[in-house]
Amino acid sequence: MKAEDLKSIVQEKYGEIATQSNIQNQSSCCGGSDCCDEMDYSTFSDDYTKLEGYNAEADLGLGCGLPTQYAGIEKGNFVLDLGCGAGNDCFVARRLVGEEGKVTGIDFTDAMLDKARVNLGKTGFKNMEFIKGDIEKLPLAENTYDVVISNCVLNLVPDKEKAFSEIYRVLRPGGHFCISDIVLTGKLPEQLKEAAEMYAGCVSGALQKDHYLDIIKKQGFQTIEINQEKKIEIPDNILLKYITPDELEAFNKENVGIYSITVNANK
């Protein structure tokens, strides 16, 4: 599938999620008695509710980690959130940077940006903004941000080398990123790799962990460190939408690992 087609799929899927209520998103079952037929996008999400700055209206359950927990964000920092969605990580980051800093969220889905701006409008914060842009070609000046964060989004970017190159470009010298994302160990069945819905759910767009870390290194980043790693279990009834029962049995025996990692690196 072409890169632009994949991007269109992501925009469509996440546009749909943005227009649903939080209750609808949080009750997306896909494993319960009233099972829906689509990917449960909250399968990988962590609990934000106890973090300072948490904004419940911005939490759509779409992340796969807590990047702000390991990002080393300090008061006065300029922070960029890639694929900000409704602003969940941005509001937590804003609490950390205080009045002296600034938080920018960027997304390419209009419905998500609309939701984020509505959430921001209710706060009165003056040092936050949400802008539209493509992570592969950020509409931002170089050497601008102290910290870049992202939560389960770079998986959805077709060209990850461009994405990490852009992160390097917009970071100030001495700046760093903290990104939560999905990676693999072992080989996914071709049917899963080609399934657009699984792509939008952050699985089939995943790279092998070693390859993912190698891309980061090749862009010039240093002190690459994985702060958190956890295995993600995809329910069998979701996998059976794409592969046969025999293929599922083989898949489980092959011990393919789908992991959420939170990784830091310095410019």
Summarize the structure.
Helices cover 34% and strands 22% of the residues. By secondary structure, the chain is α/β, with parallel strands linked by helices.
Summarize the structure in words.
The protein has 267 residues and is α/β, with parallel strands linked by helices. The protein has one domain (3-23, 45-181, 206-231, 259-266): Rossmann fold. It has eleven helices and eight strands. It has helices at 3-19, 22-26, 67-70, 88-97, 110-121, 160-170, 190-193, 196-200, 209-218, 236-239, 245-253, and strands at residues 78-82, 102-107, 128-132, 145-151, 171-185, 207-208, 222-231, 257-266. The longest helix is centred in the first third of the chain and has 17 residues, at 3-19. The model is unreliable at 26-42 (pLDDT under 50).
Query: How many alpha or pi helices?
Result: 11
Strand count, sense and barrel status of the largest sheet are: 8 strands, mixed
What does the average pLDDT come to? 85
Number of domains: 1
CATH class: Alpha Beta
Order of helices and strands: HHHEHEHEEHEHHEHEHHE
Distance between the termini: 33 Å
Number of E strands: 8
Strand content: 15-25%
CATH superfamily: Vaccinia Virus protein VP39
- Percent range for helical residues? 25-40%
Topology diagram in text:
Layout: H1 3-19, H2 22-26, H3 67-70, E1 78-82, H4 88-97, E2 102-107, H5 110-121, E3 128-132, E4 145-151, H6 160-170, E5 171-185, H7 190-193, H8 196-200, E6 207-208, H9 209-218, E7 222-231, H10 236-239, H11 245-253, E8 257-266
Parallel strand pairs: 1-2, 1-4, 2-3, 4-5, 5-6
Antiparallel strand pairs: 5-8, 7-8
